[in-house]
Write a structure and sequence with these properties.
CATH topology of the largest domain: TIM Barrel
Number of strands: 20
Mean pLDDT: 91
Number of domains: 2
Radius of gyration: 28 Å
Structural class: alpha/beta
CATH class of the largest domain: Alpha Beta
Strand order of the largest sheet: 1-12-9-8-5-4-3-2
């Protein structure tokens, strides 16, 4: 009897955690667990044997992270097939002579950091196909796609696995509230995975048995497929450098019986579970059969969330009526805010519409821009656009600080990924990058709509005007335009660009971005000397200065350099002012007086 036939007649018990157990057997956290298939196969085989002895009837291969994106950084990219094939063989050998199924474990790809290139669906599918084919060669009976938080990526893995003809379990990791880290609701995941051809859908990892149970109930209402449940052993407690899971096998097994009643047909354990959990699980579920259930699947169901109010206030309200000018000022390196306050007052008097405050540009420590923005708005009375990066805070910290910013009256946010910490002055600092600019924009849109990253309500919403960056100096403008289109789709309503010096570049930018229908403010960074000009052109990513302008700055230093740089900026502004609705001024070296001159010129 094959796997799907057995599943229709009985509850199948899966195994438990692999990483937890290998760590408990002395494997260091810095080791690659999947590589053990080649270098310590007896240890992996021993673990399979322990779970089989405990009563598991579906055991997973030790191949969860054995894909190219995770093995390449440690020099094992050429062993992807060998590691997967050997992992399947070890499980197959352990199961020999038993009525046991071997599930080929496939987990998500390595998470992108910062502005690393996103893989296309075709590229992701090819990576998963390499892993899937090797697992089939090793003798698996089915696939266990697990711990995915990104639904499009899981759909690519599902396509690769289905191409082999074997049954596929498609499982996602849901957080509290029944949403993945990528924002997909459990019912939506169940519908999409059913439509894509999964044989089972389910949930694994996550917050613990109780949350998995609630998630299963949501999924059961959206699909008639059998469900799979592999819960963590509750929340971990960090003790003496290791994570300790406190959920007892007895409690875990009791919740599993409820999971059967909710529609689960395949039940095992994830992080923190051991053969003791599986042994009691097998005893409690012995003789139980899948339950009949009613599924109410509404055709064409679309997730809905409250729409944020239209943008009617703030600096963008002037767009199309008069030229809008925003000016970037640097937060201080220390505690003295006098210069930035003086600059803000002078720029407001000159007619600037908003001040930009970057967040630790070039990964160098400056005063926190949210608190400084609140001070400027309160004492100067000019709107501040706060730049928020993904480098310095994790997902929790970002949400907390953004809600706090809204409470302080911040209404405009420019979402950027941020320069990597390695570029900065603190050698021990690390980059977080839980999000990138695209997903940060989506988070901001969710907060505006009154929900946090988990989809839980936060009240009336944050009311942010969401901005993003655009690089018009890229050799392939169409790539940048496509990126901007994605940012707009995620919720951005305006863009500010890298410094521009080439009118032809600006015209191409306007042509390519016009269909998006959002304000785009070209960046203007006045030059101050030949040395400054050459540095920007040769050393700063995203800035390209035409040869003619570089020639004009040749030999210009000090006051002469400033005058020539201002003249170049004025000429550029005068040439394009009829084609744009505003400008983003970036005074060099914090010299706000230069920006004051340009604001008066634009507004005059």
């Amino acid at each position: 009897m094959n796997f799907l036939e057995r599943l229709h007649n009985e509850i199948l018990v899966g195994d438990g955690a692999i990483g937890t157990m290998l760590y408990g057997k002395g494997v260091g956290l810095d080791a690659n667990f999947e590589h053990l298939n080649l270098v310590r196969p007896s240890l992996v085989a021993e673990l399979h044997a322990e779970y089989l002895a405990a009563g598991a009837r579906v055991i997973e291969t030790n191949t969860f992270g054995a894909n190219h994106t995770k093995l390449a950084p440690i020099g094992l990219e050429r062993k992807v097939r060998e590691i997967n094939r050997r992992g399947a063989e070890l499980a197959r050998q352990a199961a020999a002579g038993r009525e046991v199924f071997v599930a080929g474990s496939i987990g998500p790809l390595a998470r992108l950091k910062g502005e690393e290139k996103e893989l296309s669906p075709a590229e992701m599918t090819a990576i998963f196909r390499e892993q899937a084919e090797a697992l089939v060669e090793g003798g698996i009976d089915l696939f266990q796609l697990e711990t995915f938080s990104d639904l499009p990526q899981l759909l690519c893995a599902l396509a690769a696995a289905r191409a082999t003809g074997l049954p596929v379990v498609a499982s996602m990791a849901f957080l509290e509230g029944g949403r993945t880290g990528g924002g997909t609701e459990a019912a939506t995941a169940a519908r999409e995975l059913t439509k894509a051809g999964a044989d089972l859908v389910g949930a694994n990892c996550g917050a613990g048995p109780l949350e998995i149970l609630a998630t299963l109930r949501r999924m059961a209402a959206a699909t008639d497929l059998p469900l799979a449940a592999f819960a963590n052993s509750g929340f971990p407690e960090y003790v003496d450098g290791r994570s300790i899971y406190r959920t007892t096998p007895d409690y875990f097994a009791d919740r599993a019986r409820e999971m059967v009643e909710a529609g689960a047909g395949l039940i095992g354990g994830c992080c923190g579970t051991t053969p003791d959990h599986i042994r009691l699980l097998a005893q409690r579920l012995a003789g139980m059969r899948p339950v009949a259930r009613q599924v109410a699947v509404a055709a064409g169901v679309v997730e809905s969330k409250p729409e944020p109010p239209p943008q009617t206030a703030g600096f963008l309200a002037r767009w199309g009526k008069e030229p809008v000018v925003t000016v970037e000022l640097d937060p201080p390196r220390g505690m003295d805010c006098g210069k930035v306050l003086a600059g803000s007052r002078a720029l407001k008097a000159a007619g600037a519409d908003a001040i930009n405050l970057a967040e630790n540009p070039l990964a160098r420590v400056r005063m926190g821009n949210i608190a400084l923005a609140s001070l400027i708005q309160r004492e100067v009375g000019i709107e501040v656009i706060v730049h928020i990066t993904c480098r310095d805070r994790n997902l929790l910290g970002l949400q907390s600080d953004l809600m706090g910013a809204s409470l302080l009256g911040i209404r405009s946010i420019l979402a950027v990924t941020g320069d990597p910490a390695r570029l900065g002055e603190h050698a021990g600092a690390t980059s977080v990058f839980d999000l990138n600019s695209f997903t940060l924009i989506k988070l901001l849109a969710d907060l505006n709509a009154g929900v946090n990253g988990l989809g839980n309500p936060i009240g009336d919403g944050t009311g942010f005007t969401i901005g993003c960056a655009f690089n018009p100096n890229s050799p392939r403008m169409e790539v940048q335009a496509a990126r901007l289109e994605k940012k707009v789709a995620n919720g951005a309503v305006f863009a500010q660009t890298q410094p521009l010096y080439d009118v032809a570049r600006l015209d191409e930018m306007l042509e390519r971005t016009a269909p998006l229908g959002i304000p785009v403010l070209p960046g203007i960074l006045p030059l101050v000397s030949e040395r400054n000009c050459e540095y920007l052109h040769n050393e700063v990513p995203g800035i390209v200065i035409p040869d003619g302008i570089r020639q004009r700055m040749r030999g210009k230093e000090k006051d002469a350099g400033v005058r020539e740089g201002l003249a170049i900026a004025r000429e550029f502004i005068e040439t394009v002012r009829s084609r744009v609705g505003g400008f983003y001024l970036i005074p060099p070296f914090g010299k706000y007086e230069i920006a004051v001159e340009l604001v008066k010129f634009i507004k005059g």
